[in-house]
């Protein structure tokens, strides 16, 4: 969200080109995806997870994958999450799972996505681990909120949470509508290529909305995961938290693996819960493109890697 809209738009457009997709996918991690992705398999993710835990960071782990069109692909993702969960338990790693609804089959059928999420949650809830249902592009927003509400009929707020995106006009209303559930919400600015009919095109509006959403949520005493690398926003919210005397067990900070690691360490050193989001898996293309679109300067480092060969 930090740069002119046209450059973000250009990156998304280029990334949709099949030749670009083939090229980037082929040269893969060498082009720079490895800066943002822990690795392509579970072992690589566990090694990164262990190291980050040792450095004092709790984690949210995502097995990469989205927009699946076949039930078997969603089923394979569920199996991987169950393997991941077993490995976390076995190794005593401090992490929760972060899941994309379209990876669970939301694009195919709501019932399928619900059944798949429920399968994972039945296991995670038994061992006392949390699952975050992520928020994707706007065609999925309504269905994702329905999915979350339905899951909450079986699982309490300590076992499953949701995400709201500050760039969407609708998020303020969604926050009000969710309040009865005392939800655990991750607040993000929003990473997808949305039209001005649904999302604020200007960064200043997104930031203002972000502040207001988090403040409203914290005022109610509900748990907030403040997921941003924007240090000004973080300081504004900390000033609000201080003024209102909001206790530290009501919020945490979250940042993405590979983005502003110094800021991550600084937040940890100030004694805040600083959770790092660790994605892994072979389906890293969409995730990588969103990281480039957030910051066109990242395209420069991809080109440098390319020239280096
Ligand atoms: P902003 O984009 O204003 O960046 C602030 C500063 O952070 C920049 O000036 C730069 O220094 C640094 N920075 C940000 N992005 C960078 C990048 N890619 N490379 C290098 N530096 C960068 N989105 C979504 O739609 N659904 C979701 O479920 C999630 N989940 C999620 C979880 C977690 C833990 C985080 C941190 C983020 C998400 N997001 C997300 C992504 C989010 O919507 C947003 O796109 C990014 O966090 C970037 O926005 P910032 O809030 O960091 O602000």
From TrEMBL:
Top-level lineage group: Bacteria
Its EC number(s): 1.5.5.2
Task: List cofactor names only.
Answer: FAD
Top-level enzyme category: oxidoreductase
State whether keyword Nucleotide-binding applies: yes
Q: In which pathway does it act?
A: Amino-acid degradation; L-proline degradation into L-glutamate; L-glutamate from L-proline: step 1/2
The Proline dehydrogenase domain covers 46-302
Keywords, comma-separated and alphabetical: FAD, Flavoprotein, Nucleotide-binding, Oxidoreductase, Proline metabolism
InterPro entries listed in its UniProt record: FAD-linked_oxidoreductase-like, PRODH_bac_arc, Proline_DH_dom, Proline_oxidase
Pfam families noted in UniProt: Pro_dh
Which chemical reaction does it catalyze?
A: L-proline + a quinone = (S)-1-pyrroline-5-carboxylate + a quinol + H(+)
Q: Is Cytoplasm there in the keyword field?
A: no
Q: What is this protein called?
A: proline dehydrogenase
